[in-house]
Amino acid sequence: MASRVARELGYLYLNTGAMYRALAITAMDRGISMDDPKALGDMAKAVELRVREDNGLFRAWVDGVEVTERLKEPGTDKAVKVLAMMRPVREVLVDAQRKIALEGGVVMEGRDIASVVVPDAEVKVFLTADLPERARRRWRELQERGISLQWEEVLREMEQRDQKDLEREWGKLVRVEGAHLIDTTQKTVDEVCAEIVALCEAKAACFTGS
User: Fold this and answer.
1) Which of 130, 114, 144, 116 is nearest to 183 (CA)?
2) Which helix (DSSP H) or strand (DSSP E) does residue 27 occupy?
């Protein structure tokens, strides 16, 4: 959704979750324990992380090595759930994301964008859907990528991730004041994108006075 909205508006698209996933891959490759916040934070500070969208594909490089194909592997899914809870890592990435936001013209995707990264964002959208539907969407995505997992397993992992996001001390999942709630359970991609673009255009009209 975020990628498509960015294309329609002519904005930059930033998938902040992919940034955490790229660091999770790096930590696994370097044998850094997911139970060591300081070591993970030091790693996040030391590496050169580059991300960008390329013809609909969001790509990531760490110290010049591309990790795009590994971003959504099951092993990365499990590791990022832990790494994303670590405040030293979050502080590094939030700082990087804020610098990108300051340049303007960007659509950011992530669970803490409106609450932590850019609380003064001009348009805030809280996208949701019921848990079984979100699990079905994720399961279909994995099937298309040739990753075989049972739907029940995907559902269980997503439920656990939601719980962790609600419980974490910093950057927890929350709908902030002023965020537009859009339940996508019974909506098509076209409908949701049109709704978000309309919100952005209405905000732009307010600025121009038209």
Assistant:
1) 130
2) helix 16-29
Per the listing, tokens 């300081």 go with 38
Question: Assign residue 118 a region: left if phi > 0, alpha if psi is -120 to 50, beta otherwise?
Answer: beta
Which whole number is the average pLDDT over 51-67? 94
pLDDT in tens, 193-204: 999 999 999 988
Cross-strand bridge partners of residue 60: 51
Other beta carbons less than 10 A from residue 170's beta carbon:
13
- In whole angstroms, what is the distance from residue 119 CA to residue 81 CA? 23
Residue 207's pLDDT is 60
- What are phi and psi for residue 173, nearest 5 degrees? -70, 120
The one-letter code for the residue type at 149 is L
Which residues lie closer than 8 Å to 60 by C-beta, 6 or more apart?
18, 19, 21, 22, 49, 50, 51, 66, 67, 68, 71
What pTM was estimated for this model as a whole? 0.85
Q: How many residues does the chain have?
A: 210
DSSP conformation class of 105: -
State how far the Cα of 143 lies from the Cα of 150, in Å rounded to an integer: 10
Q: Which residues on neighbouring strands pair with residue 58, listed in sequence order?
A: 53
pLDDT averaged over every residue in the chain: 91
